Amino acid sequence: MVKAFRTIFIVSVLSFTVLVACNNSDSYKKKISALETENEGLKKQIEEFKKTMLREKETASPIPSLSDKKAENIKKTIEENKAITVVDVGEFTLKKAVFAKEVAPPKATGNTIKFENKESIIYLDTIINLKNLLPNSMFVGRIVDVKVKYDGKYNYNSFGLVETFKGANFGFASESVIDPLHTEIVHFVTELPEEASTDGKSIQISVLCNEEEYIYNLR
């Protein structure tokens, strides 16, 4: 009787184990099927993403290189008495560029700031009318600057002088404030070797505004 009970018990346990195993197998199959369906959906999404990226790559505009930007800037030339507008920054007009042994305001008096040339030095005075298009007041020297290239290879910086008191004196551009929509006359003075005024070699004036370069070929 005990042996029969043991046999019945063992058979019952085995049956339960097989049943559980079958149930677990069905559950795993369902999970595997669900994962396979999910994977198929992800594959389709990845393929669509690849196609979208390829279309965007084919239709996207090329990003200009630094060399392209430099070449573009070189094309921005200046003509005398022709205004150049840099939107929301400033408007400038190159009036003239002249050699001088002395730089002084047009209505100079005895107390006027003047610059007399040193030995073997000649001044190149680049005169610019500048209008401030910024919404706030700004130092003149932060809106425009001027550099000069002589003989195609020698580079020179300039210092800026703003006409004050209706042309009776000068103020330094780095310290002179220009109000919004106001216009000032600015002299950018460059010290060049004296022979530059007569030797006929090339002189290129670069006006810098808002990180853009505008070229005026003096000769």
CATH topology title of the domain at 76-217: Immunoglobulin-like
Overall form: elongated
What is the helix content?
A: 25-40%
Largest sheet: 6 strands, antiparallel
| Top CATH class of the domain at 76-217 | Mainly Beta
CATH architecture of the domain at 76-217: Sandwich
What is the arithmetic mean of pLDDT? 80
Low confidence ranges: 1-22, 59-71
Tell me which oligomeric state these chains represent. single chain
Distance between the first and last residues' Cα:
125 Å
Instruction: Briefly note the structural class of the backbone.
Output: alpha+beta
Based on DSSP secondary structure assignment, what is the total number of beta strands? 14
* Count of DSSP H/I helices: 2
Topology as H/E string? HHEEEEEEEEEEEEEE
Structure report:
The chain is α+β, with helices and mostly antiparallel strands and 219 residues long. The chain has a domain at 76-217: Sandwich (Immunoglobulin-like), CATH 2.60.40.1240. Helix content is 31%, strand content 36%. It is built from two helices and 14 strands, in the order ααββββββββββββββ. It has helices at 2-59, 66-74; strands spanning 84-86, 90-100, 102-103, 115-116, 121-132, 138-139, 144-150, 154-157, 159-164, 169-172, 177-178, 183-193, 203-209, 212-217. 16% of the residues are buried. Mean pLDDT is 80; it is low at 1-22 and 59-71.
